[in-house]
Amino acid sequence: MAPVVAPQAVPSKTTTTAKASGKRAGGKKGGVKGEKGKRKAKRRETYSTYIYKVLKQVHPDTGISSKAMNIMNSFVADIFERIANEASKLAQYNKRSTITSREIQTSVRLLLPGELAKHAVSEGTKAVTKYTSNK
């Protein structure tokens, strides 16, 4: 086995670069002029507001803890991801490049058990009908 030799640094032809001076190229992210070192917090998209609205429709006098909200958020995101993956597979099997409401409906029927699937399909159909009538 040949001995490992550390690579040598090649001197730069430019005088001062963003890396050499220790500054980031492109400046700081977000913030107001004059604020040094503060960065804009990364936005997280959640379903919290929608979960809360549905909870109030079903049980107006019931609240929800932040821990329970996080669990519900994870649950909704997981179910949506499963439905999207299944719909994607269905579109590929049928040599289609577009996921339509039909693929979503079939995915729901495959993923959710019995009565829950029937209820979800009827609610989805109702939502699509309402959307198309308001267009």
TrEMBL record:
Domain of life: Eukaryota
Basic residues bias: start-end ranges: 21-43
Keywords per UniProt: Chromosome, DNA-binding, Isopeptide bond, Nucleosome core, Nucleus, Ubl conjugation
SUPFAM superfamilies membership: Histone-fold (SSF47113)
Record has Ubl conjugation as a keyword: yes
Region (Disordered): 1-43
GO cellular component, one term: nucleus
Molecular function, one GO term: DNA binding
Gene3D superfamilies reported for this sequence: Histone, subunit A
Entries under InterPro entries matching the protein: H2A/H2B/H3 (IPR007125), Histone-fold (IPR009072), Histone_H2B (IPR000558), HISTONE_H2B_site (IPR055333)
The keyword Nucleus belongs to this UniProt entry's keyword annotation: yes
Cross-referenced PROSITE patterns: HISTONE_H2B (PS00357)
Domain Core Histone H2A/H2B/H3: 33-110
Compartments in which it is found: Chromosome; Nucleus
Family of this protein: Belongs to the histone H2B family.
PANTHER family xref list: HISTONE H2B
Role according to the record: Core component of nucleosome. Nucleosomes wrap and compact DNA into chromatin, limiting DNA accessibility to the cellular machineries which require DNA as a template. Histones thereby play a central role in transcription regulation, DNA repair, DNA replication and chromosomal stability. DNA accessibility is regulated via a complex set of post-translational modifications of histones, also called histone code, and nucleosome remodeling.
Subunit organization: The nucleosome is a histone octamer containing two molecules each of H2A, H2B, H3 and H4 assembled in one H3-H4 heterotetramer and two H2A-H2B heterodimers. The octamer wraps approximately 147 bp of DNA.
Protein name per its UniProtKB record: Histone H2B
